[in-house]
Design a protein that fits this description.
Blueprint (H helix, E strand, L loop, with lengths): L11 E7 L3 H12 L4 E5 L5 H5 L15 E2 L2 E2 L11 H15 L3 E3 L3 E6 L8 E5 L2 E10 L6 E2 L13 E4 L13 E5 L3 H12 L4 E4 L9 E2 L2 E2 H7 L35 H6 L3 E3 L2 E5 L2 E4 L3 H26 L22 E3 H4 L1 E6 L3 E2 L28 E3 L13 H23 L13
Parallel strand pairs: 1-2, 1-8, 2-5, 8-21, 10-19, 11-12, 11-19, 12-15
Antiparallel strand pairs: 3-4, 6-7, 7-8, 9-20, 13-14, 16-17, 17-18
Helix pairs in contact: 1-3, 1-9
Amino acid sequence: MPTLSPSQLPSHSSVAIVGGGQAGLSLSYHLQQRGIDHVVLEKHHAMHAWQNQRWDNFCLVTPNWQCKLPGHEYSGSDPHGFMKKDEINAYLAGFRAKVDAPLIEGVTVRRVAPRAQQAGGGFGVSTSAGDFTADQVVVASGGYHLPIIPRLAERLPAGITQVHSEQYRNAASLPEGAVLVVGSGQSGSQIAEDLHLAGRKVFLAVGNAPRCARFYRGKDVVDWLADMHYYDMPVHEHPLREGVRDNTNHYVTGRDGGRDIDLRRFASEGMELYGVLKGLEGTTLQFACDLARSLDQADQVYNGINASIDKYIEKNGIATTEPASVYQATWVPAQERATLDLAAAGITAIVWCIGFQPDFRWVEAPVFDGRGHPGHVRGVTQQPGLYFLGLPWLYTWGSGRFSGVARDALYLAEKIDALRLREEEPNESAEDMPAYS
């Protein structure tokens, strides 16, 4: 089925999918398998985030074999490698062509709200191309909507260039001079490395993100964790329960075939590390004195994951070519530094890498908590017919990966089909109703 134009917006659809990324198209694939009428609405164009919100040297942090979108598994020659940005987009373009979803691009969904039963039930959907109704709605627009930039950014000197991680492309896109990267999660640590490798002077405000090894005892750590079923553990079985959804992902990289990201090594090579950014006074930034603790905690997680792999190897009698090992710090901060004068340090640009906030204000249903996050069980909300797909830890750690999205989409397709069949069952007539005395 060809991509539709906004003028072809239906007056009614059995299912409305909001979001044309890998999550929305994965669900479309499974709905097509079941012959369920649906439409996919995308504000920009399909796979927009992958094409427009990644830096030039971006690559996957999980090996290629984990790319298992429905009906479209990775089939290249390097299953244990890490696809680069252009390769990822080519893979996703192939998936889009294969799914051939009833997709309408360039349409913004402005409001989704349940309709009263006397008005026909289901949902009213208001869009930039007009309004329509749907029996069921799936929000597949992800959870990374509003870039987080602290208010102190408004008081920074006008001459300093500020970009969020979603806007960063390469070192040459920033003015000459030193660069401050704020945040050390996956994006922050990799962008700091990108700038460092390009020969730029980098200052990095380190947060509490954990880290893990790229390879350990002869195999990618992701391979070990998959063998150990870490990516299959449902959120309700995790020790932190739903609290795990607030965790920051471990930093590691697939660049140049994959390697650890070791901030201590960067520091020994000239990168300047600070603690968490706390404030601004004039041109002087203020930081928490927690750098040493953050580095130690990241290393503790690193060694803890490796120790769990050691136990798995020993328990299962697995032969390996490499012995167990423990990471030992190669650099420690001589002292905690609480301030940094931007002018004296020659900093001309800041890259904010402190994440995103969700923005589901257009979904008018009583399913959200005080922070704007939807309450759900495996994507199913308490509002009948309303679902979420493509969120981190929607069901498992793997939900944030291509293979996990495919599994989550299949589950929701089954739920959607079951509700559709129930609603299509004819109502019992009065004579069929049981009699009571």
